[in-house]
């Protein structure tokens, strides 16, 4: 039992009532803005804004319970505070090591298990047992049973665990947008204005443009964002989950990753709300199952794998990819990019610090995989450039799913595709100067040509995998392959 009156030190991703309410509702709360953490590496400007705004809103809402300390470092803040604090397990290996050092120095009294996820780490360890190969589907079904979500007794509601097949539709023909009701949009306040001034004065090195705040920073805003999504957008979420439209940056996505990752919203609250919509008949089962799979399945799985695979996992480089990230990429120079799909995705990161899942996986990730970008650099780029980027969520998504740099521990095959996939799932190619059908010549699509270039470079690996062997035999039949490879070797613009 933690000391009764010990204060609680909350990190900026631990700001919801599930951290500071309940049995801890009477404790004083310490919040720290450490300038060294803002300067450690270059972050998206809007990410820094969200983090500082969330901390300051938490301090304002907790009132006299909270002390907000501004200091150069966390250690300095804790020393100045003068009382040993309780802290929840942090969300990265680096922060975990740091907290243990603070504990040895007597500044932290105790480390509490985190309430941030549905499944605890010891429960996952028990489930994982001695497995060396993991399948998200097995984990997800176990989560559904354990938390009794979308279940009819021991069977899944609707007789199926998985409605993915219904959720892969291209965008509706002839439409520029999905016409989904707009997502929740917060109203900025004085705290946001002060954060903006503070960031200007600090002159920290940031990337991306400043812009109006688009994501929740308080539990109340997170609740409003969830309600708005469940009531107005969830019905459209499923079918077009993988689709992309140039004029519709948010499609029917929930935009909940920021409040979830800042710890403002508990994942089971999002799951319960979605299940409620199905029971009330306001959203179709395929959409509800698709959304619940993202939160109770993928998100929880990525969190658990971060700890399970250990800190060295992020240095995996099974495909020997050594290309340094180009400056136009790290500086988010979207206007220097000609391929419309890539330009749109990079512009989303520049303008909002956000792009939706298929843009991350099949445009940005796909491009990086084809061009052999160094996976660890890419991992760190995603973490710093996205408003929802946090250390724990990157490795299984970037090193594993997107770059196959882990030897297939997360995904059974590399996610690479040519322009045909992008053309089918989006309207980008209609506005593009490249032709997705062409692999050779001045209008050859960099994704189509890049795909064959990738298959050629990785033919040993792909040829040995039943799911990708056909790509290698198709490549061998391409009469113009040497010219395509030569063209891609000399490609300077995308
Ligand atoms: P929705 O499409 O509405 O999905 C609902 C929720 O499910 C999300 O809010 C998110 O919390 C969760 N979710 C779904 N898939 C995943 C997943 N693979 N991993 C973790 N959570 C998931 N997610 C992040 O939270 N932060 C990241 O920095 C991040 N980087 C990614 C990088 C790559 C290369 C890839 C392939 C995926 C990444 N994801 C990341 C997962 C996913 O793309 C985002 O969670 C999602 O696009 C956020 O938008 P949304 O809230 O509208 O999600």
- Overall pLDDT level: 96
Q: What count of helical segments does DSSP give?
A: 22
Mind summarizing the main beta sheet? 5 strands, parallel
Pick out the low-confidence regions. none
- Total number of β-strand segments? 9
**Given the C-alpha coordinates, what overall shape results?**
globular
The level 1 CATH classification of the largest domain is: Mainly Alpha
Q: How many domain modules?
A: 3
Structural class: alpha/beta
Small molecules (ligands, ions, cofactors) in the structure: flavin-adenine dinucleotide
CATH superfamily of the largest domain: DNA Cyclobutane Dipyrimidine Photolyase, subunit A, domain 3
The Cα radius of gyration reads 23 Å
**Helicity range of the residues?**
40-55%
The termini sit apart by 58 Å
The main sheet orders its strands as: 4-2-1-5-6
Q: What is the name of the CATH topology of the largest domain?
A: DNA Cyclobutane Dipyrimidine Photolyase, subunit A, domain 3
Our estimate of the beta-strand percent is 5-15%
């Amino acid at each position: 039992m933690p000391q009764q009156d010990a204060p609680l030190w909350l990190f900026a991703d631990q700001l919801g009532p599930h951290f500071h309410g309940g049995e801890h509702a009477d404790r004083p709360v310490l919040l720290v803005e450490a300038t060294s953490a803002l300067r450690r590496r270059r972050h998206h400007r809007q990410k820094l804004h969200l983090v500082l705004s969330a901390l300051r809103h938490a301090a304002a809402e907790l009132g006299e319970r909270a002390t907000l300390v501004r200091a150069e470092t966390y250690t300095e803040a804790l020393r100045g505070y003068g009382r040993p604090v309780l802290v929840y397990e942090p969300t990265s290996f680096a922060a975990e090591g740091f907290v243990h050092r603070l504990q040895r120095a007597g500044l932290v009294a105790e480390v509490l298990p985190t309430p941030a996820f549905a499944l605890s780490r010891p429960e996952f360890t028990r489930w994982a047992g001695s497995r060396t190969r993991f399948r998200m589907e097995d984990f997800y079904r176990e989560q559904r049973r354990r938390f009794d979500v979308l279940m009819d007794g021991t069977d899944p509601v609707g007789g199926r665990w998985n409605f993915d097949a219904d959720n892969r539709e291209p965008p509706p023909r002839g439409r520029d947008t999905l016409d989904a009701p707009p997502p929740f949009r917060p109203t900025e306040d004085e705290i946001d204005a002060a954060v903006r001034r503070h960031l200007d004065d600090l002159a920290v090195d940031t990337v991306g443009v400043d812009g109006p705040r688009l994501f929740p920073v308080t539990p109340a805003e997170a609740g409003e964002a969830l309600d708005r999504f469940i009531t107005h957008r969830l019905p459209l979420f499923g079918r077009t989950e993988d689709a992309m439209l140039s004029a519709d940056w948010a499609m029917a996505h929930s935009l909940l990753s920021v409040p979830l990752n800042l710890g403002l919203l508990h994942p089971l609250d999002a799951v319960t709300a979605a299940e409620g919509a199905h029971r009330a008949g306001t959203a179709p089962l395929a959409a509800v199952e698709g959304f619940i799979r993202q939160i109770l399945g993928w998100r929880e799985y990525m969190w658990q794998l971060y700890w399970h695979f250990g800190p060295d996992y992020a240095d995996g480089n099974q495909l020997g990819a050594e290309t340094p990230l180009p400056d136009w990429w790290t500086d988010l120079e979207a206007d220097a990019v000609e391929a419309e799909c890539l330009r749109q995705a990079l512009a989303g990161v520049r303008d909002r610090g956000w792009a939706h899942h298929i843009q991350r996986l099949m445009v940005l990730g796909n491009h990086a995989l084809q061009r052999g970008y160094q996976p660890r650099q890419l991992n760190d780029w995603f973490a710093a450039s996205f408003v929802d980027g946090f250390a724990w969520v990157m490795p299984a998504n970037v090193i594993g799913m997107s770059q196959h740099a882990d030897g297939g521990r997360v995904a059974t095959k590399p996610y690479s595709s040519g322009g045909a996939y992008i053309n089918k799932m989006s309207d980008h190619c209609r506005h593009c100067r490249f032709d997705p059908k062409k692999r050779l010549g001045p209008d050859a699509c960099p994704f189509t040509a890049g795909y064959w270039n990738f298959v050629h470079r990785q033919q040993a690996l792909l040829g040995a995998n039943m799911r990708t062997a056909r790509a290698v035999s198709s490549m061998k039949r391409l009469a113009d392959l040497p010219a395509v490879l030569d063209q891609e070797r000399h490609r300077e613009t995308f």
